[in-house]
Design goal:
The protein is an alpha/beta fold. Helices cover 34% and strands 23% of the residues.
Length: 253
């Protein structure tokens, strides 16, 4: 039977690997290793370094190129569906080439946690595997690392928080009765569109990695600095992964 392990690896720091994650990777017959554009080669290298440190030889690694997502038009949901279909086909091609008998333990290293704003589980469902064939190994999320790096609590006392995306923040605004927002997947600097008094922002990029950047302050004063620093870092490295927490006082219903 084919078993697919979706292994959360944290935010790029090898110390984020749990013992369960290490065991899943070491015991895998095959590890799928995605490659994105040339300017994001560093992301694949982080995964490859982890594999080498765990004694996974080249013969157990299946490299494949990630397809590009179509970004023209306003049919965002359809774009994502097409992209996930294309990724699933790349997975299936790698599995057929390296495990032609259709049996074995396969690991895929997932940034952060596979259950939090990640589509790996949805893509795996396209392979037609039974539920028992897909295992999730939880990982440390960027949300956790952000709060730890800034030395803050994720929630205020007895208060809820919301994890959302930049797109939702732009389109829907700040939800009522919520004082803390954690915003992920925001390539458009959506915090610049928040015009509320006394909002604080805790921002981080490349969390857990040597090039980690942290900035914090009142949003009206910090927004421009964060956007400039973000653009500079992206130009320098060719890619960026960032996340931020917004907090405003006195919110409650």
């Amino acid at each position: 039977m084919l078993e697919l392990f979706l292994v959360g690896i944290g935010t790029g720091n090898p110390d984020h690997l749990t013992r369960e994650a290490e065991n899943a990777i070491r015991n895998a017959d095959l590890v799928l290793l995605p490659h994105k554009e040339a300017n994001k080669a560093e992301l694949a290298q982080v995964r490859l370094t982890m594999l080498q440190q765990l004694g996974v030889g080249d013969e157990r690694i299946a490299h494949f190129e990630m397809p590009q997502r179509r970004q023209q038009g306003d049919d965002y949901g359809q774009q994502v569906d097409e992209w996930h279909d294309a990724i699933a086909r790349r997975w299936q091609a790698s599995l057929s080439a390296h495990l032609p008998a259709g049996t074995g333990r396969v690991a895929l290293l997932v940034w952060g946690d596979p259950a939090l704003y990640d589509s790996t589980l949805r893509i795996a469902a396209r392979l037609g595997l039974a539920a028992a064939q897909v295992r999730v190994v939880p990982g440390i999320s960027s949300m956790q690392v952000l709060c730890s790096a800034h030395g803050i609590a994720l929630n205020e006392i007895g208060a809820p928080f919301l994890v959302t995306t930049g797109r939702q923040l732009r389109d829907q605004g700040w939800p009522e009765c919520i004082g803390t927002l954690v915003v992920m997947l925001d390539g458009q600097c959506s915090y610049e569109q928040v015009h509320l008094p006394d909002v604080e922002i805790y921002w981080g990029a490349y969390l857990g990695m040597p090039q980690q950047i942290l900035l914090h302050g009142r949003l009206p004063q910090a927004a421009a600095e964060i956007s400039a620093r973000r653009a500079q870092a992206r130009q320098e490295h060719g890619w960026i992964m960032d996340i931020y927490l917004l907090r405003r006082p006195g919110t409650g219903c």
